Amino acid sequence: MQSVLVTREIFPETLQRLAQHFQVTPNEGDVQHPPGALAGQLAGHEGVLVAGGERIDAALLDANPQLKAVCNMAVGYNNIDVPACTARGVLVTNTPDVLTETTADFGFALMMATARRIAEGEHYLRDGRWTRWSYNLLTGSDVHGATLGILGMGRIGQGIARRGALGFGMNVIYHNRSRLPAEQEAPINARYVSKEELLREADHLVLVLPYSAASHHAIGAAELALMKPTATLTNIARGGIVDDEALAEALKRGTLAAAGLDVFEGEPNVHPALLTVPNVVLTPHIASATVRTRRAMADLAADNLIAALTGQRAPTPVNPEVIR
Ligand code: GLV
Q1: What domains appear along the chain, each with residue ranges and CATH number?
Q2: Peptide bond between residue 187 and the one before it cis (omega within 30 degrees of 0)
């Protein structure tokens, strides 16, 4: 019988499904192992369900030539060296589609919380500072009718754009590696613009692009300087796309009105400067975190693992070229 390792605690139902096909090594107690330990733990396993963004690199693959499938429980897979997997015939899968709408809901919610200063307001109230009404108490910026900028117009970006255009009458502009076909732009009246125009014109800029060497610090001091001082920036994509130090500086100086961040470079550590500025809403990487969606992600990761190791076609491969 083949063996699979599950790196983190997941739904018992998912473990039970895997156990119908494989010998399963779960992570009982959700133990936090040191980063280098996974290579040794994988010994003797043909498959791994990567449930917590653990790094899968060439050294780990070389130590585990028996490994055939790496199934990520996330849509983003920057934790996995895909070319190294492909070169060794290891199938990589991710969990697209099942989290699109849930993540778009969260992106929109975080953008709204940022624009309308909801977290600041809550802290103000809890701190006992609310003693009377003032005409300018925590005044933010409108979402309805504003210009929504989307950097990275994939499935989730389109979901946010749809919410903005159809629900809030927003004017949608976007920048992406490739332009959407006209029939996808038309229903939301989305206008493709250069990155510079996006930065200059957006009232609310939302980042939804994948992380790669090319998108590292895609938003740094120079990009932030192009944005309107009244604008907001929301990142639900990956830490490292934004230069957190430059962002904290812009927020402190007021050259950017506010930011909403669900992801951080080096998370779960958060740049200390971000913790000292009030005009940022900080959440712990929870954009896909609804019970239903997390269950769907676990199920899809398990479907991929079962298919990959039982000679069937994995539903959502990242490197389908390794399937012969
Ligand atoms: C979450 O960040 C994911 O990539 O699914």
Answers
A1: 3-96+291-322 (3.40.50.720), 100-282 (3.40.50.720)
A2: no
pLDDT in tens, 106-142: 999 999 999 999 999 999 999 999 999 999 999 999 9
Which whole number is the average pLDDT over 222-239? Answer: 98
Please give the Cα distance from 202 to 309 (Å, whole number): 46
Three-class DSSP category at 258 = strand
Return the closest-CA partner of residue 173 out of 195, 157, 150, 154. Answer: 150
pLDDT tens string 96-107: 999 999 999 999
Q: Whose CA is nearest to atom 5 of ligand 1?
A: 74
Phi first, then psi: give them for residue 80, nearest 5 degrees. -115, 130
CA 227 – CA 296 distance, rounded (Å):
37
Q: How far apart are CA 139 and CA 81, in angstroms?
A: 45
Question: Which atom belonging to ligand 1 lies closest to the Cα atom of 297?
Answer: 5
CA separation for the pair 43, 96 (Å, rounded): 28
List ligand 1's pocket residues with C-beta within 6 A: 74-76, 99, 288
